[in-house]
User: Fold this.
Amino acid sequence: MPNPITSILDRICFEIFKGHCLVYFLINPSGTIVQWGGDLSQLNIPAPGKTDKISDIIIFMEGILPLKEKSMEFSCIKLPSGSCVDALLFQIGKDYGLIIWDSTPKEECLTQTQQKCNELSLLIEGQKNRMTRLHDDAFFGDLFQALNFAVLEMNAQGHFVLTGTPPAWVQHIPQSGRILAGMAYEEDAFSFLGNFIREAKSGWSKHRTDSFKSGLWIEKDDTGQELFFEATAVHIYGRKLIIISHDLHHPMETNAIIQKGRELALSFHSLKRSGRKLKSMHDELETRVKERTKELEEATLNLANELKERKKAEKEREEISKRLRQSQKMEAIGTLAGGISHDFNNILAAIIGFTELSLADANATPLLKDRLEKTLFAANRAKDLVRQILTFSHQTEYEKKPLKLKQTVTEVLNLLQASMPANIHIQTDLKSNACILADQTQMHQVIMNLCTNAWHSMKKTGGTLCIGLKDADISSGKLVGLSRLMPGRYLLLSIQDSGCGIRPDIIEKIFDPYFTTKGKDKGTGLGLSIVHGIVSQLKGTITIASQVGKGSTFTIYLPTFDRPDNAAPSKELPPAGKNETILLVDDEPFQTEMTGQILNRLGYRVVTCNDGLRALDIFREQRDRFDLVITDMVMPKMTGDRLSEKILEIRPDIPILLCSGYSDDIIPENLEKIGITQYLMKPYSMMELARSVQGALKQKSVFDVIGGSSGRVHGVWPHEGRSVIHSGFLKLPGQLFEGCCFLHSDGPE
Assistant:
């Protein structure tokens, strides 16, 4: 059975492409013909043998195999037999297929096309030869003369001059005398031609290469006849020409053009008038728009300023509200502190009093005496603590006195060590024993605030807290950056941490009130502001050096206070009484018991009473028995000031010593009106009580205030010009006494 593919291919060759003389070959990779088909005789191709290679039959296949591409085309190949063929070689798997067909019609068409191209080339060459004649001025002159044209050509200087033989009518165009004399045409804005020349030069400067016309314009001759001219701008072969023509239009067409021109002129003038009116309206509208825009800008600016002021006012209100809330909190703390201190001072008074009594009887037992002294020291420390609470809540005034800052630093560090985490280490370098004139509570607060801030900056990562104390003699040349200080001796307190540091953009704000970088409810922003205020009050200054990621160092400069070496408070014995009788009134039984025993030991006879009404009855019955009345301020049935008032009504010359554990109970103006001479704040020591009693007995007409917690005089009121009490420090040769000095009319005592 014949191969069906062979049959299909033969049918394609002999029937479908019969007129194209199509033949095919199937070739193996070595180039041997495996199969072939089609009418080879029409293409004068010999029939191949079984072992013939394709290059033996088809000469142009020599060296083609193996094929580098998937296919290859051949066009108009001449065979040795003279036939012209096209061929297509392509891969079929590992074998190759070759299709060949007659291309004689194609060759004939190409031959004819080539002949036409040659003829066209000759024609173009002839035209080129003709065009080169355009560079000949004589040719140009003859051409323009034949066309009745006048030609102006731009020379190298950019001026237009007449070229060729001009027609007779040239004398009627503007500046004809100049151009006929060989001079350049003067460009002007008053003639139609002058304007067109300017337009042409402007177009050529913008690389315009096409030709363009000026349109008709009219000139009059000597008889008044209207002549029509038209100019054309041409840029050809590097030459820039203005070609002027005359009377190229039919007379009827010319009249129509003139009429149309006149209509356009009338329309132009009408539009021009409308344009002027429109421009006037436009200018007026633009002026109004500018004025309205200016008004809107001013209104916008005013609105922006008003919004800015409102935001500022809202911010100030918010700040005031915040400060008010803080003030209310402080007031609440102060009220709470005052209530606690009243009760706590009563308790401390008993502890201190009984401890001092026990110490007086413990001389024979050294161990017991040592323990009692420590108890008394702790009680006095508690008394100072209550005073600090009251000072912080603004219940008492600050008191400046010689203070050895080294002791205060040590006390603060002892408190901090109990609460600091284990990953924070404390290093101290306390080289100075100098004194400063300051309030101990305030300095305690300064050191505590700075150390607490340093602790918080190292809370997450841990680190080292360094506290240093040293003397410094600062001369005028060393005051750079310390403008608030005067030359002299200073005590330098430095607190350094290895925490996160302070960013440069906020370091100038850290002393501002209410500025804080801590989260909500974690800081008030008052700590460093208070520190700065206290240091400034003490005529010192504070500096800061900080680096982000490495820590901060606060350095405080405080002026030193020269205190003699033997300036420690005198250990004198409390003044004794002379068997005077004292009425002691207090609603707390342990207070009357303790104070009574102290007064008995001091040499006084004491009558105690725990009820104000009962005390008033006793005094009324034995008014001349008592030399002094000591009464508590706050009592349930009758207050101390009311009792004092009743007693003074009975006997105006009796001295009264008023005691209280809370300073707000004492209003000096009211007590002065009543006639009370002195008051004493609880808790008080045996020495303070003894001095107050002696002062009351000796100065019956002077109102004096001796602060129990402060240990100093708070205020004085002269009475009848007889004496005045001064508060502060009494400095004698070699000694410094803290307390009061009485000045009588007959000399000091």
Remarks:
- Residues 565-570, 701-749 have pLDDT under 50 and may be disordered.
